[in-house]
Amino acid sequence: MKIRPYSGVWPIAPTPFHEDGTLDLDSMRRVLDCMVDQGVTGICILANYSEQFLLADAERETLTRLCLEHVAGRVPVIVTVSHFSTDIVVARARQAAGLGAAMLMMMAPYHGALMKGTAEQTFEQFARVGEVGLPIMVQDAPLSGVDLPVPLLTRMAREIDMLKLFKIECAGAAAKLRALIAAGGDAIEGPFDGEEGITLLADMDAGATGNMCSALIPDLIGPVVSAHLGGDRLAAVADYARILPLINHENRQCGFRAAKALLAEGRVIRSDVCRHPIAPLDPYSRATLLELARPLDPVALRWGH
Q1: Gyration radius of the chain over CA positions
Q2: Does any domain span residue 128?
Q3: Active site members
Q4: Which pLDDT tens digit goes with each residue over 205-255?
Q5: Which of the 8 DSSP states describes residue 155?
Q6: CATH code of the domain in which 34 resides
Q7: How many CB atoms lie within 10 A of CB 279?
């Protein structure tokens, strides 16, 4: 299999808050340091698992600036710029580029359950962002509710120079990745797995070269990706089988609250609080999360001790 230019593990950094809900910037710096120490390929900020939908515009700017300045080129940083408004997406992209972002990630334009960009509007928004000059990752996520069929994604890859990467998180992700790679060929430079790695093995078998997981266990997902890309599928299967119960629990029971719970337990962040109206993680789900994580000895669970 041809290894494409974009590969590896690019976890999403959570946004830590103090108990009163204000940004905990010191913990944010510690999250970034912990992720770098986990040997990640790169870091994504301001994504859905960063609780971007609970952040004010001024907070986004603060976090973008802080993260890029603190990482300081140790690994490349992807900045998420999704918004329904094309003008706002372009402004966010320009700001990220000006502050030193390596790449951009964005979903198709949507607002709520019913306002969704058409295929042409989606193409036009990505094309406008492409003019900023940074590589773009398409996030094909169920949250948007926007259908991104393979012919549209292939056209975008071929006609928008900076559109390089595709994070496929829809149902049947492996089949879609396989069809996308077959249709797009060399234009699909970074086919990525997402959704916490719950379908990682199937997606890599389909041709995915990278993974964008949460900040829960990127150090343990990394060996799966490396082994598979290196042609040792048996090792990849064994490593994946060992961590899959924890990934399943994260994906089905906890969502983005899992990474914050583990990071708080490992004293990377002060608190795992999420902003209202997000409910705290159920204590039984949290206990099971830690029970499944401890035997795996992830970096995040011991980094701050």
Answers
A1: 18
A2: yes
A3: 167
A4: 999 999 999 999 999 999 999 999 999 999 999 999 999 999 999 999 999
A5: H
A6: 3.20.20.70
A7: 8
